[in-house]
Write a structure and sequence with these properties.
Length: 434
């Protein structure tokens, strides 16, 4: 293992195991300041996930007695969000299905809102008010913005007042700078006691924490079926649907998706086609430090919940990625070992600190998946994987997606392992277990 890989792994291991200490430190600080529980909701009126979170926030505040401050922010920086148009289009589609599943409000025919209406909504929220009043106003503004209801928006502006137009952009930029200083990079985030909770997908972690602090209650945000999704994945001839998944060996969320996809494949008898792509930084894109740290921290939470080993990390960037790609395309594809090879190798990278650039480590992980040493040593001499990885990347872009893991099944395509439970629920309705 290289010295750099060892150093990166050591830092991440310390960081991933620091959560209990951070929680205790923030709890002590809160008690010293009088015991009031406070959270910040970083918000954009044109961010679909912010709107869903704003609908749940009043319930969170009233149920657990948490004071939630709404903080409108400017657009994320290019480094934090390298494909803003793709992300926005995906988020609109995704939010409509999430709203349907969670019983929240978001129109299925929504389009990107006009910039002027977004600015006017932010101008209203930049005026100082009591936190509980701001939460209610944010939800109402979001409804008007996303439904394209100019009259309702004008009425809200007239009723509540707004910041003068020339001050809106500087205020939003100052708030985004504060978000970055606090350690994050995206809107739609709740920050409480030193930890980040992105959208309604992560509210259950905040609820668990509040219960550990001795509070009682429940938001009753229970995920249910999404009828629109069922129609998107159902095949016309009644055959079992096929899942295509785009992954990266350097993506912890890709790693978390693999055991879940294996279970879905085996339980329902589905075909799962795997298409690896290069990590973002090997495609010339930068990833800010705050983003890297949040991703591994959140992945650790998710891994613990799913019972997937995670935390002893060896960064595969560089030669290790090339070796993994070469072995995948030469030794796993066509032999029914694609998912098994990914599971073994990614488990080695993300929970066993195996250095896949070190051939003996790579051989061990490949053999665990049923691929022999001679095959591995022959495969890593091949460079043909680069064109195949590029073809996969082009196919991913053709779906209007950019990150991993991304999934396509029927006419439904989505980004993120978070959508696998929703997807499986609909697969179960259409295809009883095999």
């Amino acid at each position: 293992m290289s010295a750099k890989s060892q150093a990166i792994g050591a830092v991440l291991n310390v960081y991933l195991n620091s959560r209990p200490a951070k929680h205790a430190l923030h709890t002590a600080g809160r008690l010293l300041r009088g015991g009031r529980r406070r959270a910040r909701l970083y918000y954009r009126a044109d961010d679909p996930y912010s709107h869903l979170l704003a609908q749940a926030a009043p319930r969170l505040a009233s149920t657990y007695g948490v004071e939630i401050e709404i903080i409108p922010v400017a657009h994320p920086s290019a480094g934090a969000n390298p494909e803003p148009e793709m992300l926005h289009a995906h988020a609109i589609r995704d939010a409509a299905l999430l709203a349907e599943s969670y019983g929240l409000s978001f129109p299925h025919d929504a389009e990107a809102p006009a910039e002027d209406r977004v600015r006017r909504a932010h101008a209203v929220l930049l005026e100082r008010r009591a936190p509980e009043e701001q939460l209610q106003i944010a939800a109402e503004l979001g409804e008007a913005v996303w439904r394209g209801d100019g009259e309702a928006l004008a009425a809200l502006v007239g009723r509540h007042g707004s910041l003068s137009g020339e001050w809106v952009r500087p205020a939003l930029e100052a708030n985004y700078a504060a978000l970055e200083r606090a350690g994050h990079y995206q809107p739609g985030m709740l920050y409480y006691g030193g930890e980040w909770y992105w959208g309604i997908d992560r509210l259950h972690y905040l609820e668990e924490r509040l219960r550990r602090e001795g509070l009682e209650g429940g938001l009753d945000l229970v995920r249910g079926p999404a009828a629109h999704l069922a129609s998107m994945i159902e095949t016309s001839d009644g055959s079992k649907p096929r899942i295509e998944v785009f992954v990266s060996f350097r993506s912890p969320y890709s790693y978390l998706s693999i055991p879940q996809l294996i279970e879905i494949r085996d339980r329902y008898g589905l075909e799962v086609a795997v298409r690896p792509v290069l990590p973002m930084v090997m495609r010339g894109l930068t990833v800010p430090r705050a983003k890297r740290l949040y991703i591994v921290h959140d992945a650790k939470r998710e891994a613990d919940r799913l019972g997937i080993p995670f935390g002893h990390v060896c960064d595969p960037l560089g030669k290790g990625i090339g070796y993994c790609m070469a072995v995948f395309f030469n030794c796993a594809v066509g032999k029914g070992l694609e998912l098994e090879f990914l599971r073994s190798v990614m488990q080695g990278i993300w929970s066993e600190a195996r250095d896949v650039a070190h051939v003996p480590d790579l051989v061990f992980l490949a053999e665990r998946a049923g691929i022999g040493e001679a095959e591995v040593r022959a495969a890593i001499e091949d460079r043909g994987w680069k064109e195949k990885a590029k073809a996969n990347r082009d196919a991913l872009t053709g779906l209007g997606l950019w990150g991993v893991p991304s999934l396509q099944i029927g006419s439904y395509s989505t980004w993120g392992q978070d959508r696998l439970p929703l997807l499986e629920a609909e697969i179960a309705r259409l295809s009883p277990p095999a």
